[in-house]
Amino acid sequence: MNSGNNVAHYLLSGKDHARTALNFLQTTVSYGMLSDHAGHVAAYLLRCGARQGDRVLLVSDNSFFWAACYLGTLQAGLVTVPISSNSSAEDLGSILRTTGAKIVCVQASVATAHSRVFSGTHLITDHNILPIVEAVSQQSFVRLHLDLLPLPSYASVGPNELAALMFTSGSTGRPHGVMMTHSNIVANTESIISFLSLSAQDRMMAILPFHYCFGASLLHTHLRVGGEIVVDNRFMYPETVLQRMIESKCTGFAGVPSHFQILLRNSSFKRKRFPHLRHVQQAGGHLAPTFVEELKQLFLPDTKIYIMYGQTEATARLSYLSPDVLETKHGSIGKGMPGVKLRVLDEQGRDVRPGEVGEIVAEGANVAMGYWQEPIESAAVFRNGSLYTGDLARVDEDGFIYIVDRVKDFLKCRGEKVSCRQIEETLLECDELIEAAVVGIPDEVLGEAVKAFAVPRNKNVDGLEERVASFCKAKLALHHVPKQIVVLPSLPKNSAGKVMKTALRI
Amino acid sequence: MLQTIRKFVIDNYLFGEEDKLGNEDSFMETGIIDSTGILELVRFLESTYGIKVTDEELIPDNLDSVNKIVSFIHAKQSVSTQTDGGISFQSAGRLPI
User: Fold this and answer.
1) Confidence band (pLDDT; 50, 70, 90) for A105?
2) Residue A193: its H or E element
3) What's the structural domain count of chain B?
4) Of all residues in chain A, what percent carry a pLDDT higher than 90?
């Protein structure tokens, strides 16, 4: 046990206190200020009676409050449980029950909207609000520094001590609380820093929510190197984000597929210039080749494009495609990142030969301990220290991995397994569409037939179904052509921007 | 116009709960609409009011509340009836951020 293993210590110690850590619209927060406020939160949590290993719920948009509560919880040796501020009262109640959290750091608007859920808990809110009925105690973040001194030290933690319960996106099933240790986070952060060559000169535009592991990894990596995180929660107005990226001289941008699709099809992204942008990171799902091509045309050779693959179960990221081979290994997720061994195994547990399809299995210090209070699901996914990802892939002669699809994201059409993703990629080649998703529907002849959901790029939707159907007929095998095409204004997504196929299958 | 826009937002994003929407409420701060929802709203405005919203006009000053949308559409419509073509709208390039 030592305080050096503590993630908060790993991220904050030894920093130039005057340097900017977080850059918000109205203000900036220095490393000194962030350490101080995290220390105040840590001291307050301990005053509430929390003991090492207790869970603390964190419900907020990206903010100074979020970062200070996250780091303060870790500093005190407690377990942070970050969840979306858009969570329903039912979800909040369910997570409070399953995690047994007795302390909640919550933004005022959520505390007010769902006040009943928080009865029986200690609350820290981002600013003063009226008392929440039946809360055990209530304190405002902005007043913490008036009442107590910051905790001067970091709790000693063992290498396998729990740091966070991060909930999976639930894009293909029910969300699970992934148990991440302090050493998981440190290992993944070190790997990412090394292959991205991040330094104190880096300034990352963060539009991804920090409660999502990809968003959290941006915070971890840039704090560790002493860089700056530019926080912008306005992606619904992409022009404002693009303008801020230019004005803030951001060196990095990170997004999931829907972000890039919106930027490429519904913003002035292609017409703007980003002279300081050093790299772009894409993860959180598959970006169709047509969009990758557009990114290449836009950014190469000055800005590097990193296509990455990861899972919450692996803290955040597992692989990356080196920008050097982006052209030659088109469509690959690359190879395991430093410290991660990725294999593709057949059903007998043997490495597949080039061209064969198997399941991606990961080993590394970033593989989490399992799912919170779900022994059966944990045993199926975390086996002998390896993570069975549920993603099917093939490998080429050089060891580069190509994802075929999620195990759960196949149709059985005429007895043949058909990848939804392949059909989605074809649909997105249609210039009129901005998003597409495919699911299976029962079919008397085919077993399962294709049902496609298509989101048009502009208002010209008259006859769109027919045009999409003709497009598919020209491009796809007859039994892969959608039997049903539903035009939607948008696809259902979670707070991180990931498409929720579970909602489309209803 | 105000009622039509209110109805669209309430029906599509607030499950019909009318009392949850003030005409000055920021869609962004209240979290009523997300990044794809705003595109859906823009498509509705374009088809209902016969306007074209450019990418650069997709900013909070023009669209982030019911009242802002009403002002924006009035301004767009008044320009479309003129022919000088020299009037531009608030766009991201001039935002004080």
Assistant:
1) very high
2) helix A182-196
3) 1
4) 71
**Contact between B31 and A489 using a beta-carbon 8 Å cutoff:** no
pLDDT for the residue B84: 45
| Residue A446 belongs to domain with CATH number | 3.30.300.30
- For helices A213-224 and A182-196, the axis angle rounded to 10 degrees is 70
**Tokens at residue A241, please?**
């984000």
Q: What are residue A494's DSSP bridge partners?
A: none
Amino acid code (one letter) for A55: R
pLDDT digits (tens, 9 = 90+) for A365-392: 999 999 999 999 999 999 999 999 999 9
How many domains are there within chain A?
A: 3
Q: A325 with A305: CB under 8 angstroms?
A: no
Question: Residue A456: helix, strand or coil by DSSP?
Answer: strand
| Separation between Cα atoms, residue A164 and residue B79, nearest integer Å | 54
Query: Which residues lie below 8 Å from residue A375, measured CB to CB, with a gap of 6+?
Result: none
CB pairs under 8 A between A and B: 79
Which pLDDT tens digit goes with each residue over A396-432? 999 999 998 777 677 777 666 778 888 898 899 998 8
- Helices marked H in A197-328: 213-224, 238-247, 257-266, 289-299
CB contact set of B18 (below 8 Å; sequence gap of 6+):
B6, B10
Q: Are B66 and B23 contacting, i.e. CB atoms less than 8 angstroms apart?
A: yes
What b/e readout covers A292-319, taking b as 16+ CB neighbours within 10 angstroms?
bebbeebbeeebbbbbbbbbbbbbbbbb
Give the range of the structural domain holding residue A358, as residue numbers without chain letter: 178-406
Which of A239, A262, A493 shows the shortest C-beta gap to B92?
A239
A172 lies in some domain: no
Per-residue pLDDT at B97: 28
Domain boundary among A388, A406, A424: A406
Question: CATH no. for residue B39?
Answer: 1.10.1200.10
Residue B61 near chain A (CB below 8 Å): no
Q: For chain A, list residues whose CB is within 8 angstroms of any CB belonging to chain B.
A: 25, 85-86, 109, 233-240, 242-244, 247, 258-259, 262, 266-268, 434-435, 455-456, 458-459, 489-491, 493, 497
Q: How far is CA A495 from the centre of its chain?
A: 10
Asked if residue B87 has pLDDT above 50, the reply is: no
Q: Which of A361, A387, A406 is the last residue of a domain?
A: A406
Query: Nearest by CB to B92, which of A240, A266, A456?
Result: A240
Cis amide linkage into residue A82, ω under 30° from 0: no
